[in-house]
Fold these 3 entries.
Entry 1:
Amino acid sequence: MTVRLGFLVTALVAVYAVKQISIKSLRPAASTTKYSENGKISSKQDQNEKGEKEHFIDFSSTTVKEHGEKVSGISNAKSSNSKNPLAFHDEKEPILLKYHYPEKNQVKELEGRKVKIERKLLKSYKLKEQESELDELQRHLKIRTAEIEMPNITINSLQEERKKLQEEIEKGVSAMKQLELAKRKIRSQIVTQGDAKADKNVKILEILELKILELKRKNKELQLEKRDLTLKLIVATSKITAKSSVTASEVVSEMEEEVNNLKIANEDLSKQVERIQRSMFSVVEELVYQRWVNVCLRHEIQNHQRFSMGLGPKTQEKVKKVSRVFYSGSQWHFFSSPFQQE
């Protein structure tokens, strides 16, 4: 760009110098040559003419030759007609006429060059404007790309959080499976073992109840985190629709798919929570039932021991039958209780 500007400045200076030369060449010949009383040219005018000639010689090589020939002709005319000034004027006029015509051609050429240079200047200005516009467009593109990448980053972070939540849910499911296995083991142990082991199992079940409560708390926290994630997704979708106008439909479709997937995941999680709650209720019911059975067995053993001391074998069998009927009816009443319905 600096080279172009330097070239343009030199061209303008050359045009200006040519105009000055043409103006000076069109001056009357009488003003350029004044004679003294002895018929000689004054020294100051000689110096001015020499300076102008040197200026013309420096401007271009072609003008140097023409000026040299014409100046030599004028100097010869001066030397030959120094004694007769009238003859010098008569011979000078055709020389000056010859001197003006090539300069006019040069002026025309320089004017044509000037027009070309002006066109080049206009083109260069247009190119500069286009470059500035391109820079602005690139800057806007960078800003838009940065704005579009921000929601993508948020989406990636949300996906990572969703993966973490899924892992935690899987851990909860595995814990529930372990609880079910523990329940089965406890039931088998209650049937086979005595009251002491039943008490131990009751303690284990209490520990499991605490674990279930912790799982419920974790599930609630997960639900709250899900709500936060859905809100973040909604905010991200609103930002994307507001900022990106070119690929808005694609981004919205992707976000809608992700929202639908999250809704499905939320529904699955809610179902799992309901299952956990149901299993917890069943565990509590089983605990109550086992405690009740233990109490009944203890009372039965005590009563059996008391009655066996003072009754005969026939009466003992009758008491056993009555107790069986009573306990069978009580079990049916327990399973049809409102707690079971809840």
Note: Residues 28-100, 329-342 have pLDDT under 50 and may be disordered.
Entry 2:
Amino acid sequence: MNALMALLLVISYAAGALIVTELVIYEGPNLSITKNGTGLAAPPIIVFGLSLFLQGIISLFAARHCGPHWLDNTDMLATTKKQIDDGIIFPRPHRCMRNVLQGQSTTPYLVTTPVPLAIPDPLEPSTRQPSAWSVNPTVKKAAIVVWGLIPVYTIWGAIIYALSVYVNTRVSKSGKIQTVGIGIEKLTDFSWAYVPNLNTQAFGIAYLTTNAKESATLPSATWPSIFLAFMAIQCGLTLTLHYCEAIINSTRDEHVWRLAMGDEGVPTLEKRLLRVAWDVVSNSWQSFFLLVTKPFRPTLNTTQDEHVGRQVASWRRVAISLQGLLRVASRLASSNWRSAFLLGTKFFCHWLLAQSFQVTGYFAQTFQVSGALARSNFIGISVLARCAQIWYLSAALVGFATITTLIAKYKPRGPLPAAYGHFQTLADLIDEWHPVVYWGDKSNQNNVFHAGTSNHRLPQVQMGRMYGGELDPKWPSTANMQSV
């Protein structure tokens, strides 16, 4: 199923990039006048819609079988709390200073029942935590794949350049299929513009009818061949950028978790951006409705002051709701800059790749004496690949790979054990659940300290001390599982 979803993802990106096509229109008595335009191609639109439909069907089936706890919450702490409440995972004792790597190597435990009397194995707090690169093998693989994609596209651009310069124009026996080369041997002589133009180095294939006064009929394999060619070029970029979400998501989750050491703590409730947005709409729709329908409603028997007062009160509620929405949105944006960076990179890289691959349709139009269109014939199609945009894409991938590698190899500062969104590790580290939790030093028993969470700011842990105890030797009563 994952392979099918990956295939549909590649198809949707490829089809979406081919929807907008260039048009070359020949006009005049001898078709000597050339005009350029933009059009929409029907086959890519159909394929794009079908791929999205199939992805939606698969997602619905997956949502049905994944269980409600994955759908009720999208926040990692809210999901962790939900899994603990449902008995899917259990907090384990004496792991208050163990990060996601150290927590996997401690005393074995049963999945279905917690260990009641685990032996403490205390640890000293660390000033730096392990990086996502060392914690998650998927993160390491994703970063390596990004670097491996750079020479692939660089070589592909060099192949296009060589074909455009050294391959002569070749025509099939029927005269309808021919190669198209727009090439200059010196790299400094052709256009390096981001947006391609007539001087952009390119190579491709054209299918043109020999008689411009007759409509051409494309071979049945034309559009499937175009789709397969562009999918082969784009699949590496599409899947690699999608794979890099492992880097962004894991480091983003760790950033959110480390807010527990700060002055504001970390919320354990579901992210409320959509909920606040819905409140804005539900609370203010009447105000918008009254404003829009005001010219069509009869004047009520109210004084001007009463009318103005109602409007002011109504719009004040709207303003308060919008302020709440902006506050939540700003907090999410500050913690989700990595996601915004990945989203922007996806857009820019796919735009560059689409600029490097262009499908052009050719038409011949004749007009009557009155100026009305008499006939419009489709006379052919051409497919061009451009090297400059591919090399720009390689350069963009160098920057993206550098930034993602730095993000993956960054070691968070502070004694708070790193979890990187690992549910079991979070369950071990959080011993009290509140709407907002703070992490720090909590107790000292037999020279073994305990670190945990609370609903108020806690003292900082003491570096050089041994941590691994609990508030109460009888587990699991130490975990104050308060409902939030």
Note: Residues 1-68+135-261+268-293+313-409 form one domain.
Entry 3:
Amino acid sequence: MHEINDSLHKGNRDDEIKVIISEGAEDSFREGFDFPNGVEHTPMVTKKS
């Protein structure tokens, strides 16, 4: 989870980064997110299934 947060924060600080793509492994599902106001203004919620 730390790698995801680090990537999002880096993308938020660098105006050259327009897209961050993450992939799931094997049968994992990944959903997309839109951060119109930047990741700093978007609360992150995680939970185990």
Note: The chain has a mean pLDDT of 73.
